Amino acid sequence: MSCLSLSPSLLAACATGCSDAHLVDCGQHRIHANIVDDFIALKNAAAQAGFELTIASSFRDFERQSVIWNAKFSGARPILDQHQQAVDISDLSELEICHAILLYSALPGASRHHFGTDVDIYDQAAIPPDYKLQLEPHEYTIGGPFAAMTNWLDNNLAKFGFYRPYQSYLGGVAPEPWHISHINQSQLMCDVLNLDVLTKQVQHSDLLGKQTILAHLPELYERYVTNIARPPQDTVLAP
Ligand SMILES: [Zn+2]
Q1: Where are the domains of the chain?
Q2: Given the DSSP bridges, would you call strands 23-26 and 29-32 parallel, antiparallel or unpaired?
């Protein structure tokens, strides 16, 4: 594995989506330099098993995540509930809107898609060229086009140093079977993304609902950022 080493301050900027110093090209996407070898090994093993493991979404910077957040907060873009139904936000408080958004969309500055270590994936070989990818749970469960690859990943992700941080609902982020994370490199990002770093980032942003976010940031951080599945301990590789 190539070994990119960043100073603590630059690492914090990368972890909050404010720097892309940690990224390199991998096909049409950019991912963390230190996960490229493991990701390609995973992709090649998937290919051997008959799957075309493809990235749907990788790095998003703070600005991009802010656009998503503000579009949802303002009602310009629908907020979906766990049944994929649009939420009526007209009678919701700002805090209730935050919770509704956070079920599926991360707070800018706290998205694991800033890390470059996390990607959303699907099986290109299982769908026709005109298939419209939705990234919804029914596509990844029995009867869905990606169920077979999901099953294969259940048994093989950890061998390549990856896992699913949103594999089950823990009261925060909804289950996302398409979202995989490099265990060791994402942990290095999580280590610098503390409440203090996140607070400063939100303070300097143009996020809608900013004062409400800041007033409740400790509980939002605990419920949606650190409240994730733990990696399988026995498969954690050396950094
Ligand atoms: Zn994702």
Answers
A1: 21-60+112-182, 61-110+194-227
A2: antiparallel
